[in-house]
Amino acid sequence: MTDLGRVLVLAGGLSHERDVSLRSGRRVAEALRDVGVDVFERDADSELLSTFDTDRPAVVFPLLHGAQGEDGAIQEVLALTGLPYVGSPPASCRQTFDKPMARGLLERAGLNTAPAAVLPQSTFRELGATPLLEAIVTRLGLPLVVKPARGGSALGTSVVRKEEDLPSAMVECFAYGHVALVEQMIDGIEIAVSVIDTGDGPDALPAVEIVAESGTYDYHARYTAGTTEFFVPARLTPELTEQIKRSAITAHRTLGLRDLSRTDMIVDSAGTPWLLDVNVAPGMTETSLLPQSVRAAGIGLGDLARDLLGVALSRAA
């Protein structure tokens, strides 16, 4: 066994991404056991805090996705209980999970984001959906990407290529949140760059190029084996590869993140990277992007997880 002490892998929760979280948790727990770490797994439920009284871990690896795991709530709980954990501080999680807020910070840092509109569901009720939707198309054009302002795993996200499809896309979006982020769609190569920091500063791992069979990297394409082709490292020029790695590190630092993150981008036909999203709790499933980058870098997932836990313990000390 390692000298980390007893490690809790926290997964599950009640968000729409519960199943993905459980799969991530199982994979990381198995990888840690393979490198000799004493691990136990727990769901994030009403008995969690009482567990800390009877079976208190030395350090926690939270692998909760969606609102409960990425909006800063579970990080705040762990901070309140005095438990060291892997991942970003609560305030950084909150501002990153709020896509419009994160966009503003990243734009001020000099990174490219697509033209967009942010509208709550109540505005459509009060001012009328038809004129608002017409104004969106007039201002941003087509195609568009409609997504919840807070959320992950592409849940509630739609690509709109025809104006008549926009109302149903808004309904789908509002099923997962009360505020919609409507972005001008950027055509190009979809790229994900993971950033890790095991104590020597943030470092970008090999970029993953994503080619979804359906043309859209939606929830099904993310978590169904065989529906998406990945190229690691991405098929980009060395100069562009370095540029997107710098962009991912800038995003990580700008948003105040620590330990690990993943930045999703589109590289257009002119070679310009456009930021789509930054994730504070990247998935760790068999089809997730960060583990593919870790493997391409020649790092074992268990070794990386163990090192991040060590950093968390050192931070607490």
UniProtKB/TrEMBL annotation:
<feature type="domain" description="ATP-grasp">
    <location>
        <begin position="103"/>
        <end position="310"/>
    </location>
</feature>
<dbReference type="GO" id="GO:0005737">
    <property type="term" value="C:cytoplasm"/>
</dbReference>
<keyword id="KW-0963">Cytoplasm</keyword>
<dbReference type="Pfam" id="PF01820">
    <property type="entry name" value="Dala_Dala_lig_N"/>
</dbReference>
<dbReference type="InterPro" id="IPR011095">
    <property type="entry name" value="Dala_Dala_lig_C"/>
</dbReference>
<dbReference type="InterPro" id="IPR013815">
    <property type="entry name" value="ATP_grasp_subdomain_1"/>
</dbReference>
<dbReference type="GO" id="GO:0046872">
    <property type="term" value="F:metal ion binding"/>
</dbReference>
<feature type="active site">
    <location>
        <position position="17"/>
    </location>
</feature>
<feature type="binding site">
    <location>
        <position position="264"/>
    </location>
    <ligand>
        <name>Mg(2+) 1</name>
    </ligand>
</feature>
<protein>
    <recommendedName>
        <fullName>D-alanine--D-alanine ligase</fullName>
        <ecNumber>6.3.2.4</ecNumber>
    </recommendedName>
</protein>
<keyword id="KW-0436">Ligase</keyword>
<dbReference type="InterPro" id="IPR016185">
    <property type="entry name" value="PreATP-grasp_dom_sf"/>
</dbReference>
<feature type="active site">
    <location>
        <position position="288"/>
    </location>
</feature>
<dbReference type="GO" id="GO:0008360">
    <property type="term" value="P:regulation of cell shape"/>
</dbReference>
<keyword id="KW-0133">Cell shape</keyword>
<feature type="binding site">
    <location>
        <position position="279"/>
    </location>
    <ligand>
        <name>Mg(2+) 2</name>
    </ligand>
</feature>
<keyword id="KW-0547">Nucleotide-binding</keyword>
<dbReference type="InterPro" id="IPR011127">
    <property type="entry name" value="Dala_Dala_lig_N"/>
</dbReference>
<dbReference type="GO" id="GO:0071555">
    <property type="term" value="P:cell wall organization"/>
</dbReference>
<keyword id="KW-0067">ATP-binding</keyword>
<keyword id="KW-0464">Manganese</keyword>
<feature type="active site">
    <location>
        <position position="153"/>
    </location>
</feature>
<dbReference type="Pfam" id="PF07478">
    <property type="entry name" value="Dala_Dala_lig_C"/>
</dbReference>
<keyword id="KW-0961">Cell wall biogenesis/degradation</keyword>
<comment type="similarity">
    <text>Belongs to the D-alanine--D-alanine ligase family.</text>
</comment>
<dbReference type="GO" id="GO:0008716">
    <property type="term" value="F:D-alanine-D-alanine ligase activity"/>
</dbReference>
<dbReference type="GO" id="GO:0005524">
    <property type="term" value="F:ATP binding"/>
</dbReference>
<comment type="pathway">
    <text>Cell wall biogenesis; peptidoglycan biosynthesis.</text>
</comment>
<dbReference type="InterPro" id="IPR011761">
    <property type="entry name" value="ATP-grasp"/>
</dbReference>
<comment type="function">
    <text>Cell wall formation.</text>
</comment>
<keyword id="KW-0479">Metal-binding</keyword>
<dbReference type="InterPro" id="IPR005905">
    <property type="entry name" value="D_ala_D_ala"/>
</dbReference>
<dbReference type="GO" id="GO:0009252">
    <property type="term" value="P:peptidoglycan biosynthetic process"/>
</dbReference>
<keyword id="KW-0573">Peptidoglycan synthesis</keyword>
<keyword id="KW-0460">Magnesium</keyword>
